[in-house]
């Protein structure tokens, strides 16, 4: 039998999580994952480290009492790189007034700390069901952690994702596709351009046609989410002033709403570019979808949404705002696997990925209170 559960100090948990540099790339979540697993094991959780590579791991920690619902708390351990110069050490939680400054404070080690603390306080209390913590690697790039641990989480009744929403209840998010378009030409001497095909000029034709496609996307609507988008984001072409370029590459960002898929987006873009070949026989291109994830959505009438709303109202005496998550999110993997999932967590998405990132301490306390009350209500 395990020793008595340590009383979790949420801010101490957060400071410890922040102290691990889990910048992605390269990630290096393994040490943070090992520490979290060990701490949860001391609370009575059965833990498993799911290793993705030598220095990359995710955590599955669970405790079951009775045959009730299975609740999964999902959060990611990786953070984006630090970037520009900070006013403080980004891997040391620095308290200034009501805020904690650090990389990952808002996105999303604050949410992870609140989830761990809430789950740990339940370990020695009676409940009916299973509590599982799903603390994953690689959310910021390729979602390896969540995908590799789906075998443990896909049978969940409810999934709570602790991404920063300012404690609003987010029930949908847009998906994304990142495309690499290679516009092809034929290089030749810059003084004899008629002997070649200028790939940069082909890229210009493609970009203008895709701009019209982006305008068309604005007519597609969703009740909560912004419209789908297409944006040209990175362009590279040319070798030297006096060489007609034979290749010009474009990277592009396509956001999806429910009802769209990476496959349909790719077909639409191919149709736009193929149409240019009719008027411009020397126009050539290749198209690659090098990263994608679908959109996610759950009905506002779903049991999970209603329960979360009731818990919030009981905790704070007001209705919880229902909205949508503005970025891509791992909700899509859970809903695709058949589990109901929502996003609700402390901190603001506006603090994600910025220099001098911070979170309000009151938000972390609010999240912990909500998560604890949700577990009690769902597993009574």
Structural summary, described in words:
It is a single chain. This protein has 380 residues and is α+β, with helices and mostly antiparallel strands. It has two domains: 10-173 and 296-378, Aminopeptidase (3-Layer(aba) Sandwich), CATH 3.40.630.10; 175-293, Alpha-Beta Plaits, CATH 3.30.70. It is built from ten helices and 18 strands. The chain has helices at 10-19, 30-42, 105-122, 144-148, 150-153, 199-217, 262-279, 303-316, 331-337, 361-378; strands at residues 46-53, 56-65, 70-76, 94-96, 99-101, 129-136, 158-161, 169-173, 175-184, 188-189, 229-237, 243-244, 247-256, 284-293, 296-297, 322-325, 340-343, 358-360. A six-stranded mixed beta sheet has the order 1-2-6-3-7-17, with helices on both faces. The protein has a four-stranded antiparallel beta sheet with strand order 11-13-9-14, covered by helices on one side. A three-stranded antiparallel beta sheet has the order 4-5-18. A hairpin with a 2-residue loop joins β4 (94-96) and β5 (99-101). α1 (10-19) crosses α3, α3 packs across α10 and α6 crosses α7. The longest helix has 19 residues, at 199-217. It is elongated, with a radius of gyration of 24 Å. The two termini are 24 Å apart. The model has no long low-confidence stretch (mean pLDDT 97).
């Amino acid at each position: 039998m395990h020793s008595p559960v340590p009383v979790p100090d949420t801010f101490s948990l957060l400071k410890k999580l922040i102290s691990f540099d889990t910048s992605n790339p390269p990630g290096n979540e393994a040490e943070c994952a090992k520490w979290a697993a060990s701490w949860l094991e001391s609370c009575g959780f059965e833990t498993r480290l799911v290793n993705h590579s030598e220095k990359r791991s995710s955590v599955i920690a669970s405790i079951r009492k009775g045959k009730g619902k299975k609740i999964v708390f999902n959060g990611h351990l990786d953070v984006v790189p630090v970037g520009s110069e900070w006013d403080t050490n980004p891997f040391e939680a620095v308290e200034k007034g009501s805020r904690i400054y650090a990389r990952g404070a808002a996105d999303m080690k604050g949410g992870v700390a609140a989830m761990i603390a809430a789950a740990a306080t339940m370990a020695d209390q009676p409940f009916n069901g299973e509590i599982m913590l799903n603390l994953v690697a690689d959310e910021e790039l390729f979602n390896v952690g969540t995908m590799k641990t789906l075998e443990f989480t896909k049978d969940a009744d409810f999934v709570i994702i602790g991404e920063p929403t300012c404690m609003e209840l987010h029930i949908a998010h847009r998906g994304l596709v990142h495309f690499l378009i290679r516009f092809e030409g034929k290089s030749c001497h810059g003084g004899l351009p008629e002997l070649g095909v200028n790939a940069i000029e082909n890229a210009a034709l493609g970009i203008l046609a895709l701009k019209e496609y982006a305008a068309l996307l604005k007519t597609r609507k969703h009740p909560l989410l912004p419209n789908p988008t297409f944006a040209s984001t990175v362009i590279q072409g040319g070798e030297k002033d006096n060489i007609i370029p034979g290749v010009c590459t474009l990277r592009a960002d396509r956001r999806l709403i429910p009802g769209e898929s990476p496959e349909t987006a790719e077909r639409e873009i191919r149709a736009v570019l193929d149409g240019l070949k009719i008027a411009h026989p020397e126009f050539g291109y290749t198209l690659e979808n090098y990263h994608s994830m679908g959109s996610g959505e759950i009905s506002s009438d779903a049991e999970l949404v209603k329960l979360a709303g009731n818990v919030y109202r009981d905790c704070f005496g007001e209705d919880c705002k229902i909205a949508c998550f503005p970025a891509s999110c791992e909700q899509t993997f859970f809903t695709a696997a058949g589990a109901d999932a929502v996003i609700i967590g402390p901190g603001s998405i506006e603090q994600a990925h910025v220099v001098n990132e911070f979170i309000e301490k009151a938000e972390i306390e609010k999240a912990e209170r909500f998560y604890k009350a949700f577990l009690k209500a769902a597993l009574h």
